[in-house]
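Hello forum,

I keep getting stuck at the same step: I have a sequence, I want structure tokens, and every attempt I make locally crashes halfway through. Rather than fight my setup again tonight, could one of you with a working pipeline run this one for me? It's a single chain of 641 residues.
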Amino acid sequence: MLADLKGVGKRKLQLLNELGIFDTRDLLYYFPVGFEDRRTPVDFWQDSTGHFIGRVVRRQLYQPRGKKSILTIDVASEFPVRVLFFNSNYLESVFQFQKDYVFYGKLERKAKLLQMVHPSFAPIDKKEEFLSLVPRYRVKKGLYQTDMINFVDQALAHPLPDLFDEADRQTWGLLSFHDSISQMHQPTGKEPFKRALYRLVFEDFFRYLIANRSLRQLAREAYQMDRQVVDHFLEHLPFQLTKGQQEIIDQLYIDLTSGTQMMRLIQGDVGSGKSVLAYFLLFAAVSAARQAVYLAPTELLARQQAEQFKQRFPEIKSQLLTSATKNKPAIYQQLAQGEIEVLIGTHAVLQEAVRFKALDVIVTDEQHRFGVDQREQLKDKAESAHILMMSATPIPRTLSMIMHQNISLSNLSDKPAGRAKIETRLVSETRRRQAYQHIKQEIDNGHKAYIVFPLIEASDVLEAQSLEENRLELTTTFGSQVEFLHGKMSSQDKVSILQDFKDGKCKVLAATSLIEVGIDVPDATVLLLRNAERFGLSQIHQLRGRIGRSDLPSTCYLTYSHNIPPRLEVLAKEDDGFVIAEKDLELRGPGELMGTRQSGNFQFPVADVFRHSHILKQVDQLLTPETVAKYQNRLHQEVKL
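Reply #2:
Ran it on my machine without issues. Output:
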């Protein structure tokens, strides 16, 4: 447990939780975003970053009243260097006269003086340990790099259980799990690091494919219903279905009445109308006197779907369940007694306390965001229930055939009538005010806009714009018309701000990628995505889908920091998610293993379907029936870290 690690008190435990780290496994999979290479010496002849060794010849603490204290350490080295620390009084007693230390940091020339501000340092007898590759983690205020290194070191102090036995590891050329995790945090070289990454990607795909190979469409009782159920459903809709929606409803009807368990995935582009298809399945279950559950990846999406479903089908007893829902015991009781017919919620529906009387239909929206274990938890609540998975993240056909074996696949490509095409423009970060002017014009015309950032707060590791560091600029530009939304807010605040945006009480929503899925505001006509190079193509396409949801002309601005990344040009020319997925695979290349992981694909701890497609194909080829049988039981019985 995290709380058992030395140095993890209540406050640091809370900060770890805010980073998504809840147990030791989460900690070990919280990999560095970069490394500080302290092995390189500084170049005394120019500004540079590196290490040097020197002797302390003078120290002075200066503390002006009401201002930051300044600790000055003069160091004799190849050239004299002045080392400065601000608000670090405790260091005065750490540095001893005429003692040698090794320093690492940015060396700058100030007039005739060389100086280094807030360097890392160590006594000379710690030189070998100090001059190494040091991991840099994304942290929060109050949680330090040294904390993360310490916690990870403790977690790695004990052997980690391995899914694969040694014989298979040798056959498949894999490092042990313990060595792989260790290399990800403390690499001993480029090749060992690549081997470690390969092993973890391999395991991600292995687990997923083994779980999918175990899917079997069981024989079961067929729904005794006729086409009048479809007609009755359509009477609730204030619009006509597209041709694609009609075809998939026919497929769902056949699945329900076939006497075989439904195991279907609907891949639909952004804004293609997948929700209506889910509603039909929920409606059909209730018509057959069964219960249904709809699992959404975010609270905002779950709440929106619950509201829309209740509005469309007021006669059905539906209920929203999230971590913020009050009076849960009463809801649990009503579910167990069958009084609630449709449950719509987030991960909260997976809890042990959630029990159904007659659960028979399971829908998971944005199914790539849920792990295998979570889907298994839902299946355990109902024997041979019909399962519908939906995704707005298309993947290339060659990969889809591997990922979705034993699953019926439906593609929804057409969009509802009356949707305007979105114009996508690539602009430099320095010219973002052009987008601001456009947003102001749209506000004057009664429309709304999104401004999306890759980070909530500024990072000392990642070079990217953040919501908080732009708060003043946006407030100055848009005044009271802008509100801010991010994942660290309380559920109540998120719902309140989003409702203000929908109601027009604010016209600009500055947010993180939290709005990526399912937010439906038809009069939003502009989306400005800052540092677009920090996002995957599929994720940008999802975000872009927050606009263009009516007949109003819409514009998406993608800003970049330096040169235009070639892959962003794909989005300026193409709006078909399936084509974008093929281009994404083509641009990344099948052999690429290293690099920053892009989000927006399947929710694997390490793997990326596009970047690591060659490993996916390798795993698929080695999964013989004997291997599948051997590891299916092991996966069910394994002990969590």
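Residues 190-213 form the longest helix (24 residues). If your local run keeps crashing, start a new thread with the error log.
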